[in-house]
From TrEMBL:
Protein name: Putative aldouronate transport system substrate-binding protein
UniProt source species: [Clostridium] celerecrescens 18A
UniProt cross-references to Pfam families, sorted A to Z: SBP_bac_1 (PF01547)
Leader sequence residues: 1-19
Entry annotated with the keyword Acyltransferase: no
Coiled-coil region list: none
Length: 491
């Protein structure tokens, strides 16, 4: 009911705004027409913080000049994008230090650490009205984007959902007698049989590896064991999924994979780079990668190193109590664009995002420059080798990207496109919610307890028979209190 009321209010506000207004907006509360915006011909500078862009980097400077030029033409006024300097260190920490200093850019990209500035300090603008009155951005919005914006209207991130899918080499998959059975009926037993054959056929160290945690295993097996969401309904109450019998059975299965050498015995110490190297070098057979762009990178690197026959196959999620990849968390965007509530140029800051979601902006964002990352031949875009060094700085979504790219140099490989289709087929929404500040410390402690217990069980250092004691410890550490709170907001 709460979401329904919120949705109706948002739609009602959008209708009122659109009754006498165009697509451009001036602020979150005062919507003005396109004519009003373009009539202001004064020059404006938009201070921005954008991850991986630097004022000292020639590529960054050239890109921002191109964006500024495009937005200027779109608005009919001179717009300059200027990077605000941030300190060294992790990106989220550097962003936090910048904002705490009192320097608040007009346009900001967050990758964590946004909650305190949106909710506690209240310095981020509600983007609901901007999106409702947009054209290009609204065309790229997917159901999960809409849910997240409704729940947390301070971040905008137009990208395929960050759901991971398991991948394996085509040549190895085709050579395995168990592969057809796996596709036809991907039960946990059939997955295990496939892992065993894959390891034996190719003399692998392990069938599957992960970078230090089990999230990439969970994307395949969670739903099969009945771990269908963060909070699971048992009777008339919600319980945390990681303290259920379904979780217990799943961890016992992972421990079997580890004991039999099917799960990499070095999984706890693996990092992203060593995981990927083990995959390309033929030490392991299966890894998981984020649908779309990451799968595309994995496929291209695998083909470059091992030949065309080694292109990737996307594996289905295991089937059991249910079937699906990891449900998407729609409580909020985990990263994305924000606008300062105190900016004098909110309309122009949003216009940057709107332009980059349009045809010209997407072409620049995704493909770079003609004569460098691509050429035009017979009215088609032919990508050059330099495209491998280019990535979207604003919007990764390809939902409305219809550039005439030659089939000889596709933007995404078959594997990447298949990963998007598979996630679309096997996707669902999670019921996770943002943990309030008063529970955050206990929640972090309870998560650390689970991570330690799961690692010990999988690696054979503790017995799964100690699961009930883990549950008792989890509840005593604050889990019981958080569960009680969860039951007040989940319906």
């Amino acid at each position: 009911m709460k979401k329904t009321i919120s949705y109706l209010l948002v739609m009602g506000m959008a209708v009122l705004s659109l009754a006498g207004c165009g697509k451009k907006i001036d602020s979150g509360s005062n919507v003005q027409s396109t004519q009003d915006s373009t009539n202001d011909s004064s020059s404006v500078t938009i201070k921005a913080v954008i991850k991986d862009l630097s004022a000292d980097d020639e590529v960054s400077v050239k890109f921002l000049e191109a964006v500024s030029s495009g937005v200027s033409k779109e608005l009919g006024r001179e717009v300059h994008l200027e990077l605000a300097p941030i300190s060294d260190g992790t990106y989220s920490e550097s962003m936090s230090l910048l904002l705490q200093s009192g320097e608040i850019p007009d346009l900001m990209y967050f990758q964590g650490g946004d909650y305190q500035f949106a909710i506690t300090q209240g310095i981020l603008e509600d983007l609901t009205q901007y999106v409702n009155n947009s054209t290009n951005i609204k065309a790229l919005m997917q159901p999960y984007n809409k849910e997240r914006l409704e729940n947390y209207p301070y971040l905008l991130w137009l990208s395929p959902d960050r759901i991971k899918v398991p991948v394996v080499r085509q040549d190895w998959f085709d050579a395995a007698k168990s592969s057809k059975t796996l596709l036809d009926n991907p039960t946990t037993d059939n997955y295990k049989a496939f892992f065993q054959e894959l390891k034996e056929n190719n003399n692998l160290k392990a069938a599957y590896t992960v970078p230090g945690d089990i999230a990439e295993l969970d994307t395949v097996f969670n739903l099969a064991f009945g771990v269908k969401a963060t909070w699971i309904k048992e009777g008339d109450k919600y319980v945390y999924s990681k303290v259920t019998n379904a979780e217990k059975e799943k961890l016992a299965f992972y421990a079997e994979l580890y004991k039999e050498g099917l799960l990499d015995n070095e999984w706890l110490t693996k990092k992203w780079d060593t995981k990927e190297s083990a995959f390309y070098n033929g030490e392991v057979g299966v890894v998981s990668g984020t649908q779309g762009s990451v799968v595309n990178v994995y496929n291209n690197k695998m083909v470059t190193q091992n030949g065309e026959n080694a292109k990737l196959v996307i594996l289905p999620p295991a089937k059991g109590a249910a079937q699906g990849y990891t449900p998407g968390d729609v409580s909020k965007e985990s990263r994305g664009w924000a606008i300062s509530k105190y900016s004098d140029h909110k309309d122009v800051a949003f216009a940057v995002l709107e332009y980059m979601a349009g045809k010209e902006g997407q072409l620049l964002d995704k493909l770079g420059y003609e004569g460098e990352e691509y050429n035009i031949e017979n009215n088609e875009i032919v990508l050059t080798d330099k495209i491998s060094e280019w990535w979207p700085r604003f919007h990764e979504s390809i939902a409305n990207f219809d550039a005439p790219i030659s089939s000889k140099t596709p933007y995404f490989s078959e594997a990447a496109l298949k990963s998007l289709d598979m996630v679309n087929t096997y996707s669902s929404f999670d019921n996770a919610f943002v943990i309030p500040d008063e529970y955050a410390t206990n929640w972090d402690a309870s998560q650390a307890l689970y991570i330690e217990f799961a690692a010990d069980v999988i690696s054979g250092n503790r017995s799964i028979d100690e699961f009930d004691q883990f549950v008792a410890d989890w509840n005593a550490l604050g889990g019981a209190e958080i569960t009680e709170y969860a039951n007040t907001i989940l319906k």
